[in-house]
Amino acid sequence: MGYAERQLARTDTEVPPSSYPSHTRRSGRWQFTGPEAWTSGFLPGAMWLLYRQTEKPVWRRRAARRQAALAGQQLNTVTHDVGFILLSSYARAWQLTGRPSYRQVALRGAASLASRYSGAVGATRSWGARQGREFTVIVDNMMNIGLLFWGSRHGGPCRWRAIAHRHALTTLRDHVRPDGSTYHVVDYDAATGALVRRRTWQGTHAGSTWSRGQAWAIHGFAAAYAQTRDRRLLEGARRVARWWLRHVPRDRVPPWDFDEDGILAGAGLDRVLVAGRPRRPRDSSAAAIAASGLLDLARLEADRRRARRFRQAGVATLRSLATPRYLARGTRTRSILHEGTAHHARGLIDTGLIFGDYYFLEGLARARLDI
Ligand code: GLY
User: Fold this and answer.
1) pTM of the complete model
2) Which residue in 76, 121, 159, 360 is deepest, having the highest Cβ count within 10 Å?
């Protein structure tokens, strides 16, 4: 925690106002974005998590200052990412401070997200204009619907909970394979709701399992079960978690995509050989997201044997992330974790990722404080 505090304090001095860190560059310094990037909520979110754990007022002040420029995102209806942006910042800020103005921003954001729902598809649209014929849903969206669940518990309409529940069931049906692995992207016909194709955006190929997508599924299905107590979603969460546990390497930090054949066949970055085999960059952020989701699932499990297994796996993953291989301590990198893969096809590998840091802190809070 001391190291996390030092890294985030330095980040706070280096990131200009109204700019948001996404990933670290080769120099170790952060690349910045504007408030509309899907990653913008995670710096204030990480600061709120530090406030929760340390109870130091300085983290509350920093978090509040950092999230101020995100308020305009409450009117963002062009992407599902309004969920990521406002859940990690304003909704968490409300949870920790009870300030009504924070609740209002998050509620308006939930209304924006709800405007992307289609009854024909039974899901909220991930990308693109609300009117387009092609209706794309990515597995990551399981995280964004958390804002709808949150909103309906905090004064918003019951409909938001119902549409988030429907979205989770549609994703369970169409993104999760029978063995518990996941597709990244599913396209539907917006008019009829018919499934058009399954594919990937950040993975190796359409049939692969992109590691961060699988981690989003663990975290998202556990959270959706917590909100609905629908046993189908508990079964879904168990299924994706079990698949993860069967496939992660010994140190529990996955390669950026689980499909080794796809990676070995791929050209370019993976062609760097280590001990005669192509190197497979890891994604520490996927491990952090999964660890936090496994700890949530353990808390929700009535079956004690499963609960113990998920908790042990979550804690073991955090411990692995805290080893020198994944912790950026002693390097010039500004993030807490390194060895993340932001987007392999764009060459964004071996980076620090602000969302990896956020979910690492969330996982630590869940392990230590049971939040
Ligand atoms: N939602 C984007 C990502 O996980 O990279």
Assistant:
1) 0.96
2) 360
